[in-house]
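Technical note accompanying the year-one report. For the benefit of new consortium partners, we illustrate the data format agreed upon in the data management plan: each record pairs a sequence with a C-alpha coordinate string. No post-processing was applied to the example shown here.
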Amino acid sequence: MSAAMALGESGDARERRRTRLRELVAQHAVSSQAELVELLARDGLAATQATVSRDLDDLGITKARGADGRVSYALPEMPALAQSLRQFVLTIAASGNLAVVRTPPGTAAAVAIAIDGADVPGVLATLQGDDTVLVVAREPATGRDVADRLLATKHGSGRPAPAPTRVPQNNSKGERP
Protein backbone atom coordinates (compact mmCIF):
# COMPACT_ATOMS: atom_id res chain seq x y z
CA MET A 1 0.00 0.00 0.00
CA SER A 2 1.41 3.39 -0.98
CA ALA A 3 1.86 6.29 1.43
CA ALA A 4 -0.93 8.18 -0.34
CA MET A 5 -3.33 5.25 0.06
CA ALA A 6 -2.38 4.92 3.73
CA LEU A 7 -3.28 8.59 4.20
CA GLY A 8 -6.72 8.01 2.70
CA GLU A 9 -6.21 9.34 -0.83
CA SER A 10 -8.23 7.44 -3.39
CA GLY A 11 -6.60 6.14 -6.53
CA ASP A 12 -9.07 8.20 -8.57
CA ALA A 13 -8.02 11.45 -6.87
CA ARG A 14 -4.36 10.65 -7.42
CA GLU A 15 -4.96 9.79 -11.07
CA ARG A 16 -6.96 13.02 -11.65
CA ARG A 17 -4.17 15.06 -10.04
CA ARG A 18 -1.47 13.33 -12.07
CA THR A 19 -3.43 13.71 -15.31
CA ARG A 20 -3.83 17.42 -14.59
CA LEU A 21 -0.10 17.70 -13.72
CA ARG A 22 0.78 16.27 -17.15
CA GLU A 23 -1.61 18.73 -18.82
CA LEU A 24 -0.22 21.71 -16.89
CA VAL A 25 3.37 20.81 -17.76
CA ALA A 26 2.47 20.31 -21.43
CA GLN A 27 0.51 23.58 -21.68
CA HIS A 28 2.48 25.99 -19.48
CA ALA A 29 6.09 26.86 -18.72
CA VAL A 30 5.88 25.92 -15.03
CA SER A 31 9.13 26.49 -13.17
CA SER A 32 8.40 25.47 -9.56
CA GLN A 33 6.52 22.91 -7.52
CA ALA A 34 4.83 25.76 -5.62
CA GLU A 35 3.46 27.05 -8.93
CA LEU A 36 2.10 23.57 -9.73
CA VAL A 37 0.46 23.35 -6.28
CA GLU A 38 -1.23 26.71 -6.95
CA LEU A 39 -2.39 25.71 -10.45
CA LEU A 40 -3.79 22.44 -9.12
CA ALA A 41 -5.63 24.32 -6.34
CA ARG A 42 -7.23 26.62 -8.95
CA ASP A 43 -8.61 23.46 -10.56
CA GLY A 44 -9.95 22.22 -7.21
CA LEU A 45 -7.21 19.62 -6.75
CA ALA A 46 -5.60 20.00 -3.33
CA ALA A 47 -1.99 18.85 -3.08
CA THR A 48 1.05 19.61 -0.96
CA GLN A 49 4.48 20.39 -2.36
CA ALA A 50 5.69 16.99 -1.10
CA THR A 51 2.86 15.23 -2.96
CA VAL A 52 3.61 17.13 -6.16
CA SER A 53 7.30 16.30 -5.77
CA ARG A 54 6.48 12.56 -5.50
CA ASP A 55 4.09 12.78 -8.45
CA LEU A 56 6.69 14.52 -10.64
CA ASP A 57 9.24 11.86 -9.76
CA ASP A 58 6.80 8.99 -10.39
CA LEU A 59 5.74 10.52 -13.73
CA GLY A 60 9.34 11.09 -14.84
CA ILE A 61 8.74 14.83 -15.25
CA THR A 62 12.00 16.78 -15.10
CA LYS A 63 13.18 20.32 -15.76
CA ALA A 64 14.54 21.51 -19.11
CA ARG A 65 15.77 24.85 -20.45
CA GLY A 66 13.39 26.39 -23.02
CA ALA A 67 13.93 28.69 -26.01
CA ASP A 68 13.61 31.73 -23.75
CA GLY A 69 16.37 30.43 -21.45
CA ARG A 70 13.88 29.75 -18.66
CA VAL A 71 14.00 26.40 -16.90
CA SER A 72 10.62 24.67 -16.62
CA TYR A 73 9.14 21.22 -16.19
CA ALA A 74 8.92 18.98 -19.27
CA LEU A 75 7.16 15.68 -19.93
CA PRO A 76 9.36 12.58 -20.18
CA GLU A 77 8.30 11.39 -23.64
CA MET A 78 10.66 12.22 -26.46
CA PRO A 79 9.06 15.58 -26.53
CA ALA A 80 5.58 15.59 -27.92
CA LEU A 81 5.50 17.81 -30.98
CA ALA A 82 3.40 20.64 -29.53
CA GLN A 83 5.46 20.81 -26.36
CA SER A 84 8.74 20.66 -28.27
CA LEU A 85 7.63 23.45 -30.62
CA ARG A 86 6.44 25.64 -27.73
CA GLN A 87 9.53 24.98 -25.67
CA PHE A 88 12.30 25.26 -28.26
CA VAL A 89 11.14 27.01 -31.43
CA LEU A 90 11.97 30.68 -31.96
CA THR A 91 10.65 31.12 -35.53
CA ILE A 92 9.14 29.12 -38.37
CA ALA A 93 9.40 30.39 -41.96
CA ALA A 94 8.87 28.89 -45.41
CA SER A 95 10.53 28.96 -48.81
CA GLY A 96 9.51 26.77 -51.73
CA ASN A 97 9.21 23.21 -50.49
CA LEU A 98 11.01 23.92 -47.19
CA ALA A 99 9.93 25.02 -43.75
CA VAL A 100 12.79 26.55 -41.76
CA VAL A 101 12.56 26.12 -38.00
CA ARG A 102 14.94 28.19 -35.84
CA THR A 103 15.83 27.15 -32.28
CA PRO A 104 18.35 28.14 -29.62
CA PRO A 105 21.77 26.48 -30.09
CA GLY A 106 21.79 22.80 -29.24
CA THR A 107 18.02 22.21 -29.39
CA ALA A 108 17.36 21.59 -33.10
CA ALA A 109 17.85 17.82 -32.74
CA ALA A 110 15.04 17.55 -30.17
CA VAL A 111 12.70 19.46 -32.48
CA ALA A 112 13.64 17.37 -35.53
CA ILE A 113 13.08 14.14 -33.58
CA ALA A 114 9.68 15.39 -32.40
CA ILE A 115 8.66 16.32 -35.97
CA ASP A 116 9.85 12.95 -37.31
CA GLY A 117 8.11 11.07 -34.49
CA ALA A 118 4.81 12.88 -35.01
CA ASP A 119 4.43 11.87 -38.67
CA VAL A 120 3.31 15.39 -39.58
CA PRO A 121 1.20 15.30 -42.75
CA GLY A 122 3.06 16.74 -45.73
CA VAL A 123 6.53 16.17 -44.26
CA LEU A 124 8.99 14.12 -46.32
CA ALA A 125 12.09 14.54 -44.13
CA THR A 126 13.94 16.73 -41.67
CA LEU A 127 17.56 17.80 -41.60
CA GLN A 128 18.91 19.51 -38.51
CA GLY A 129 21.96 21.46 -37.55
CA ASP A 130 22.74 23.01 -34.19
CA ASP A 131 20.05 25.70 -34.23
CA THR A 132 18.03 25.11 -37.41
CA VAL A 133 15.74 22.37 -38.72
CA LEU A 134 14.97 22.18 -42.43
CA VAL A 135 11.66 20.42 -42.98
CA VAL A 136 11.20 19.15 -46.53
CA ALA A 137 7.60 19.11 -47.77
CA ARG A 138 6.25 16.07 -49.63
CA GLU A 139 4.46 17.03 -52.87
CA PRO A 140 1.82 18.32 -53.31
CA ALA A 141 2.34 20.10 -49.95
CA THR A 142 4.50 23.22 -49.88
CA GLY A 143 6.91 24.56 -47.32
CA ARG A 144 4.21 27.12 -46.41
CA ASP A 145 1.68 24.30 -45.79
CA VAL A 146 4.13 22.54 -43.47
CA ALA A 147 5.15 25.79 -41.71
CA ASP A 148 1.48 26.67 -41.14
CA ARG A 149 0.77 23.20 -39.73
CA LEU A 150 3.76 23.47 -37.35
CA LEU A 151 2.69 26.98 -36.27
CA ALA A 152 -0.87 25.76 -35.63
CA THR A 153 0.51 22.89 -33.54
CA LYS A 154 2.81 25.24 -31.61
CA HIS A 155 -0.04 27.64 -30.83
CA GLY A 156 -2.39 24.82 -29.87
CA SER A 157 -5.05 25.57 -32.47
CA GLY A 158 -6.43 23.38 -35.17
CA ARG A 159 -5.60 26.04 -37.73
CA PRO A 160 -2.58 28.17 -38.55
CA ALA A 161 -1.76 31.25 -36.50
CA PRO A 162 -2.74 34.48 -38.22
CA ALA A 163 -0.13 35.74 -40.65
CA PRO A 164 1.47 39.09 -39.92
CA THR A 165 -0.03 41.93 -41.91
CA ARG A 166 2.21 42.99 -44.78
CA VAL A 167 2.19 46.32 -46.51
CA PRO A 168 2.62 45.82 -50.27
CA GLN A 169 5.74 47.49 -51.62
CA ASN A 170 6.73 48.30 -55.14
CA ASN A 171 9.44 46.15 -56.68
CA SER A 172 12.23 47.48 -58.90
CA LYS A 173 9.89 47.60 -61.93
CA GLY A 174 7.26 49.56 -60.04
CA GLU A 175 4.89 46.58 -59.97
CA ARG A 176 3.02 45.42 -56.90
CA PRO A 177 3.84 41.94 -55.66
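Partners are asked to follow this layout when depositing records. The longest strand covers residues 123-128.
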